[in-house]
Model the fold of this input.
Amino acid sequence: MVQGGPWIFERFGGKNAFWISLTAIIGLQIYMAQLLGPQTGDLLRLQLTFDPTSFAKIFHGWTDGEYQSYRRHFIADFAYPCAYAVFLYNCLAAALNRLKPSHRVETVVYLPPLAAAADYVENILHLSMTEKSLLNHAHLVPWAFAAACLKWLILTIIVGAIIVYRSRAQR
Done:
């Protein structure tokens, strides 16, 4: 494992952590997809909505059952960032360990917990906006959007780093 990474991940490195976190990711995704069904597409739309009116239009278009499913999905959605942070840390560490020390940029191992933190902020804000009256929470929509964008940006950087590091290691 990469030395000097986030201390919490030093305990969760290695093949077991890789497979356990991958299994957790798949299991959580299946659970959330089954729970939300066709409503799953609305989640990405909610994440990428910065306008309170658009957010309210999506949110208030749900039936009571869909609303309850959305609230219940947070049980899995709060476990999900931990699972993908451990998985991505292991992928980054494995890719970095294949490089010569002079080619490493080891600070990227701090990105998975940052993405998870942004995801938690987004989840907390979205959960706080699950009251039927969005009028009291409209000011939170842009903040949730910013957290979601930050999360997706960091995840894109992580995947790019893994691809670049793995391609450099093969030379």
In short: Residues 141-169 form the longest helix (29 residues). The chain has eight helices and no strands. The CA atoms of residues 12 and 86 lie 7 Å apart. Residues 4-8 have pLDDT under 50 and may be disordered.
